[in-house]
Amino acid sequence: MALILEQILNGLQFGVMLFLLAAGLTLVFGIMGVINLAHGSLYMIGAFAAALTVAETGSWWLGLLAGIAAAAAAGMLIELLALRRLYARDHLDQVLATFGLILFCNQGMIIAFGRQPLFVELPAAFQGAVEVIPGVPYPSFRLLIIAVGLAVALGLWWLIARTRIGMLVRAGATHREMVRALGVDIRLLYTLVFGLGALLAGLAGVMAGPVYNVQVGMGEQILILTFVVVVIGGIGSVRGAFFGALLVGMTQTLLTAFLPGLLRGLMPASEADALGAALSSMGVYVLMAAVLLWRPRGLFPAHA
Amino acid sequence: MSSTVIGRRALLSTAAALPLAAPAFAQGAPLRIGMITTLSGPGGYLGQDIRDGFALAIEMEQGRLGGVPVAVTVEDDGLRPPQGKQIAERFLRNERIRLFTGVVFSNVLGAVAPEVLDADAIYVSANAGPSNFAGRECHRNYFVVSWQNDNLHESAGQLANNLGYQRMVILAPNYQAGRDALAGFRRLFRGQVLQELYTRLDQTDYAAEMAQIRAARPDAVFQFHPGGLGIAFLRQYAQAGLLASIPQCVAAPSMDSTILSAVGDAAEGINLSSHWNSDFDNEASRRFVAAFRQRYNRIPTYYAQQGYDTALAIGAALRATRGDVSPAAFRPAMLRADFVSTRGRFRFGPNQHPIQDWYALKVERVGGQLALVTKGKILEDHGDAYAAQCRL
């Protein structure tokens, strides 16, 4: 029983991590209509800035600030220099350009910092483990990730549903031309939204740093799952991204954890382990296909 | 939109970086060597070290190997088999290269090697040694200087016996080398394998596996996660509080010196097996480590050592053939393995894979710094399990 609870907690934590990445991606796509493959690069920039700052100053919290700031700044710079020219073009051009940005960012990081992975220390206050479930010490940093993710979800909900900027964002997502006709500086709005998306990617990078590895190419590893989340949730919907991320995180974790065990009842152990591993890595994509059959535009379509 | 890291057309001619290589051109074009390796993504430092070790050997001989002027053309396969295959095709057809090396990952080698061998060119492996090319599908033009994949893990299995572990959980990513790893570990391990867990090659979060391991309560854990995967795995293992209660006994790829510096204190006390370590006390190894540290300002991983040894092995063959790389001349010269390996004793077995010794290593504190320390020999004159199936 404790094992099941622990795995549910793991699924929640992985889902929340995916949400941090997916929220930015879906915002940018929903409002600006841009497919930004370079989202993973912003995640990497956040993680690197944090890792280097922590190594330099010894303070994890300064690293957090640096990571978020660097990713947001890089995001807005990319928007100003490159993406602005792409809004009117079709998705293929955007994919090509942002793919180019991935190559550019990765090679730039290799030139600047090399291929060796960086070491990031856990913040001093979160180095231990907490027994949230009796008998199972759970790393407190992973609890922090869950808390941060839920706080971001709440914050985004408040921002989008309750503030004037959020109102413009919602309006921009559904009636872009009308918002412009009403005299809103849509270009500034776009830059801000892109910056916000980048900031969230940077935050994800900072939180991922001490747990995963900080290395060139780290963004592309997780980007594919992030796209799955966005598609399941409904492209452009932050609420969809939240539930999609939890669904994907939970599915992935629980299948990996329990499918081989269930199959062991049916076949020899080594075959069950191999088959279970293969099925659980397909699980998320099967889930995506099933959701799309049931709701072709995702769970919470933004432009319904 | 699977793996989105595409290899750049990073044609890096190492010869261009060598000032003393220039006179070689005056005596005719240098011998071209094609290096297809992984330079991008989380496996990027593996290929970088192989490349740098290989280049160092050439540099130390002033742009030559075995007295023959050489030029190395390096390209990044991005850990994608189709891309490796394309590069091999281009090297063969357009650039007329006849001698290949460098592939890091077994799945890439599975695409590259047939391409090279079908064209009757030569492949000398500096890392991957998958089981399929060691047995029935062994080939006259295919040499492995590093090891057969299973060897790494057989030696870890023997090490687990030596350390007295009875009940173990074993994990590896679900791909050719991962399956070879678990099979290899089981071959010599005499205890009980409680659970065999397969991870994914693109996995970042191992929390689910950590919970499984905790629940199984093994004596120790064996895991094979090369490069960036290993860093994430070990870190999360330590953060889950497992390292204190369940020790790890692994093979060299899961704990190289780069992983060690990225994982930090958490790695102290881990036991591993390897065919070489940077503290080896022989003339060739000391010379290599000193030169590498001076040239690149970092401790060489065993990948760098393999790149270096591969260059030495090729150099010995080229010296005997005076630069002839036609298989008829090159093969007998190569098989003599007439070079002083940094690992000490080395010779080729009947399937042209190494027969060598394996050592126990441990992560310990040396003068305040964590380092890999050699503790003793595990296996002597160890060949591989597939040699008997090879008819050459």
Overview in brief:
The complex is a heterodimer of chains A (304) and B (392). Chain A has helices at 2-32, 39-57, 60-81, 91-113, 140-162, 164-174, 176-181, 186-208, 218-233, 238-264, 269-294, and strands at residues 129-133, 136-139. Chain A is mainly alpha-helical.
Shape of chain A: globular
Largest interface chains and counts? A-B, 57 and 47 residues
- How many structural units, i.e. domains of chain B? 2
Cα gyration radius of chain B (Å)? 20 Å
Sheet with most strands of chain B: 7 strands, mixed
- State the end-to-end CA separation of chain B: 42 Å
Distance between the termini of chain A: 41 Å
SSE-based structural type of chain B: alpha/beta
Q: What's the assembly state of these chains?
A: heterodimer
The amount of beta strand of chain A, in percent, is under 5%
The overall pLDDT average of chain A reads 88
State which percent range the strand residues of chain B make up.
15-25%
Mean pLDDT of chain B: 89
Structure description:
The complex is a heterodimer of chains A (304) and B (392). With 304 residues, chain A is mainly α. Chain A has 11 helices and 2 strands, in the order ααααββααααααα. Chain A has a two-stranded antiparallel ribbon with strand order 1-2. In chain A, strand 1 and strand 2 form a beta hairpin. Chain A is globular, with a radius of gyration of 20 Å. In chain B, strands 1, 2, 3, 4, 5, 6 and 7 form a 7-stranded mixed beta sheet that branches. In chain B, strands 11, 12, 13, 14 and 15 form a 5-stranded mixed beta sheet that branches. In chain B, strand 8, helix 6 and strand 9 form a beta-alpha-beta unit. The relative contact order of chain B is 0.14.
Structure characteristics:
heterodimer, A: 304 residues, mainly alpha, ABC transporter involved in vitamin B12 uptake, BtuC, two-stranded antiparallel sheet, 3% strand, globular, B: 392 residues, alpha/beta, Rossmann fold, seven-stranded mixed β-sheet, five-stranded mixed β-sheet, 13 helices, disordered N terminus
